[in-house]
């Protein structure tokens, strides 16, 4: 069996695929650098480069040829065959049952349906997919464009990377031009034949894509050039033009999107999405003559711009076109967008109108008949009193709170003080704000200084430093609202914050040392009082301990004495009772004492004073009598 040859991709097809992938890779690289540096133009460039790359990758989906219905041939008229008797074999064949076709598996039927659907609807599906891609890219681009730029960190390596991308795009452009122009199937200006060989049709398909990718590469080079210049200006310290860079990239993105959409719609109308899907982006200056506007118009209109009659036509149409564009732009100067936090002052022929423009989109007369000045009426602003604010710092007495701090003279005329307040306000009535004075903020500030002077002129430094700051700020706010309302400035004072009251910075160190000395003296007095209290407590504790011990000893001595007296009285009474009965109590006690001392031991007692009969009666000792 002969093996089927594997279908090989044409060189122009490989070049188109590799170029689209490289373009997408550079776009992803720009987005990665944005994530690392937070430099918004890099993200916008990534979206600008990724859009044509993904669109061309979608157009590289395989083409499935449509199934052609079998041609119906009419039978040629011939003589009818003579009727003959059927042979037994023919009769058998006619009577044989017709075999029923096998039912295809479910997945085979689904695959067959998808193949038929893709072959018949590929152009429509790709049109919808690319238009959806363009819409999504635009939505995301403008959402990111409206973001407030964050602080970002950049280095000289970013412009180097962009220059490398720029050179890489030049190499890709030369390769695409070489791969697409050397194998032209149809010469410029010739109508393509209705049917081309399969190989030639594939070459024409990929050559059209290469031409479109060259326009995308030129747009990418323009965007990289803009960012590289802006970055070098910033890194060299000449200024940060990120807003201008974003605007230029937005204009380039609108230009790219418009021509991509026009090219796609024209190709769909001409049924060329499956034969020559060239999404051209004419980029004069970096793409050569074949990527210019004239070449684009020739391909998409079918008119040869180099002929004499076409030049005359352009000369005739061009002035009217320019005039129409100028009038259109002039008319759009009367379209004004007011943000939700803004309000517009509408001037007609220099006169302020009664009604202001509320948030939304408004159409006025073009300039110079009408003009609109936009003010942030729903944004809270602040003004500082007592110093010129530079930035938010800590409120320390010994440090200045701005570039210049004002001093106020107190009542005695010998003391100075610095008071720092912050007033929060907003524009409540825009018409009154514009009609009251040339600078309502300056009027608000001068009124605040007047109130501060009135509140400090009759007091001294110590009283002012110990004042309740909340009550002071509230009283100041009420006085300010009352005074400023008389001028009809249209301002609404929302809050007053008393940031600090302190001596002037020049003497703040001395005053702080004086306060510290007073605090230290008070600390020493409190420490001495605490030590005195501790000594008193310890003395009282020792006193009560000694007195209690003496009292206990006294009670114990009295109790012991009473016990001895009681015992003595008891002994006297016992002796008296024993004597009345003829017993010698003293002898008894003496014998008890001897027994307590001797115990059970055998001892001989020699005593002439002992009564032998008494011992016999009351003692257990053995009596031995002898004479001297």
Q: Assign the structural class, choosing from mainly alpha, mainly beta, alpha/beta, alpha+beta, or little secondary structure.
A: alpha+beta
- State the major sheet: 4 strands, antiparallel
SSE arrangement, N to C = HHHHHHHHHEEEEEEEEEEHHHHEHHH
- Strand portion, in percent? 5-15%
State the end-to-end CA separation.
Answer: 166 Å
Percentage of helical residues?
Answer: 55-70%
SS elements, strand count? 11
Overall shape: it is: elongated
Q: Compute the number of helices.
A: 16
Q: What is the alpha-carbon Rg in Å?
A: 57 Å
Q: Could you name the ranges where pLDDT drops below 50 across 5 or more consecutive residues?
A: 1-6, 88-94, 182-196, 397-403, 623-628
Average predicted confidence as pLDDT: 75
Assembly type of the chains comes to single chain
Reconstruct the topology from this structure.
Elements: H1 11-37, H2 40-59, H3 88-95, H4 106-145, H5 157-181, H6 198-235, H7 242-269, H8 293-301, H9 308-332, E1 335-338, E2 343-348, E3 351-352, E4 360-363, E5 370-375, E6 381-385, E7 387-388, E8 404-405, E9 408-409, E10 416-427, H10 430-436, H11 440-456, H12 461-465, H13 469-485, E11 491-502, H14 505-580, H15 585-598, H16 612-618
Brief synopsis:
The chain is of the alpha+beta class and 628 residues long. Helices cover 58% and strands 9% of the residues.
Explain how this protein is built:
The chain has 628 residues and is α+β, with helices and mostly antiparallel strands. Among the domains are: 11-65 and 106-185 and 196-280, no CATH class; 335-375, no CATH class; 381-503, Tetrahydropterin Synthase, Chain A. Helix content is 58%, strand content 9%. The protein is built from 16 helices and eleven strands. It has helices at residues 11-37, 40-59, 88-95, 106-145, 157-181, 198-235, 242-269, 293-301, 308-332, 430-436, 440-456, 461-465, 469-485, 505-580, 585-598, 612-618, and strands spanning 335-338, 343-348, 351-352, 360-363, 370-375, 381-385, 387-388, 404-405, 408-409, 416-427, 491-502. The strands form four sheets. Strands 6, 9, 10 and 11 form a four-stranded antiparallel β-sheet that branches. Helix 1 (11-37) packs antiparallel against helix 2 (40-59), helix 2 runs parallel beside helix 7 (242-269) and helix 5 (157-181) packs antiparallel against helix 6 (198-235).
